[in-house]
From TrEMBL:
SMART domains the UniProt entry points to: Iso_dh (SM01329)
Cofactors (names): Mg(2+)
Keyword presence, DNA-binding: no
Ranges where the Isopropylmalate dehydrogenase-like domain occurs: 4-327
Pfam families: Iso_dh (PF00180)
EC nos: 1.1.1.83
Keywords: Magnesium, Metal-binding, NAD, Oxidoreductase
Highest taxon listed in the record's lineage: Archaea
One of the GO biological process terms: L-leucine biosynthetic process
UniProt xrefs under InterPro entries: IsoCit/isopropylmalate_DH_CS, IsoPropMal-DH-like_dom, LEU3_arc
Family: Belongs to the isocitrate and isopropylmalate dehydrogenases family.
GO molecular function, one term: magnesium ion binding
Protein name: Isopropylmalate/isohomocitrate dehydrogenase
Length: 331
């Protein structure tokens, strides 16, 4: 049966990198039913809604969502969509590819960021003139499910020859109550995964370690804001935003998107790097159980990167679609 995928191109380069990715998916020979939906600045200008009801319905009834980028309405689109789909795990692989300028050539870990609470719960207040607060929510339930997710992922990666280790990043020495709970739950869940190594670091030190010893990590798990900051920094160590994919995964839904935004500075020129979106589609295929096809695409992409057949951001001179074509040739 065809995989039913909700496709949201969104704004700016979303309209370039997503169609290029769809071309690659179509070339794999797998059977897909692509259901197109709108979201972002453009539909907002036209209808007054950045995330139309119809889009939400299409997303909810699909097996997975492939998302490009939104512009200024990003918070009302992607943050809302993650919430509606209850995708509690934000998964961001950090991997060095040959041919891409990286800190080291042996970086291969995954950041798992809690996607539903922490400081991004959105509980802010102005309690007096010039005095504002934000509430940091950490619950046992959400912490437990994100740690279980991280340990399961480490188990899967161990089967593929990885070390089988989960590193928890927190700030329990200062945020004694919230991260005290976070750290405690981490070691409680770890009890159920004796086959997986565990360690924990303070987030500030962790931020240094992803630069000084990025090759030692396997699965890194952290809370929402820390994960947001850590993962953009990590992307910078392996070639930047043009290469950074992400998956948002819940118990019922999966939403796959490049980390970058609509890139208005290069939109419309046809030079956006499609890699981040293609790698997001690779994560989507793994989520759909299509591991063989996922690996085929990644391998073809690896060859293309190693040969320098890339868009200008990586030093090549190909257009978005030409790079996709090079990948298709090698499938
Ligand atoms: P951005 O990620 O769009 O661009 C940052 C820089 O990276 C730009 O110089 C851009 O040209 C470059 N870049 C990004 N993706 C690239 C690619 N695939 N190939 C080559 N170069 C690439 O972030 P920025 O400029 O901060 O935000 C632009 C708009 O995107 C804003 O309206 C923002 O709200 C939105 N945004 C949306 C996100 C989403 O939909 N998930 C995430 C981040 C920003
Ligand atoms: Mg971010």
């Amino acid at each position: 049966m065809a995989h039913k995928i909700c496709v949201i191109e969104g704004d700016g380069i979303g309209k370039e990198v997503v169609p290029a990715t769809i071309k690659v998916l179509e070339a794999t020979g797998l059977d897909f039913e692509f259901i197109y939906a709108e979201a972002g600045d453009e539909v907002y200008k036209r209808t007054g809604k950045a995330l139309p009801e119809e889009t939400i319905e299409k997303a909810l009834e699909s097996e997975a969502v492939l998302f490009g980028a939104a512009g200024e309405t990003a918070a009302d689109v992607i943050v809302k969509l993650r919430h509606i789909l209850d995708t509690y795990a934000n998964v961001r692989p950090v991997k060095s590819y040959k041919g891409v300028k990286c800190l080291r050539d042996d970086i291969d870990y995954v950041i798992v960021r809690e996607n539903t609470e922490g400081l991004y719960k959105g509980i802010e207040a102005e309690i007096d003139e010039g005095i504002t607060t934000a509430t940091r929510v950490i619950t046992e339930k959400a912490s437990e499910r994100i740690f279980k997710f991280a340990f399961e992922l480490a188990r899967e990666r161990k089967k593929e020859g990885k070390e089988g280790k989960v590193t928890c990043a927190h700030k329990a020495n200062v945020l004694k109550v919230t991260d005290g709970l976070f750290k405690r739950v981490f070691y409680k869940v770890a009890q159920e995964y004796k086959d997986i190594k565990v360690e924990d670091y303070y987030i500030d030190a962790m931020n240094m370690y992803i630069i000084t010893k990025p090759h030692v990590f396997d699965v890194v798990v952290t809370s929402n804001l820390f994960g947001d900051i850590l993962s953009d920094g990590a992307a910078g160590t392996v070639g930047g935003l043009g290469l950074a994919p992400s998956a948002n995964i819940g118990d019922e839904h999966g939403l796959f998107e490049p980390v970058h935004g609509s890139a208005p500075d290069i939109a419309g020129k046809g030079i956006a790097n499609p890699t981040a979106t293609i790698l997001s589609a690779v994560l989507m295929l793994k989520y759909l159980g299509e591991h063989e096809t996922a690996n085929r695409i990644e391998k073809a992409l690896e060859e293309v990167l190693a040969l320098g057949l890339t868009t200008p951001d990586l030093g090549g001179n190909l257009k978005t679609f030409e790079m996709a074509e090079e990948i298709i040739k090698r499938l």
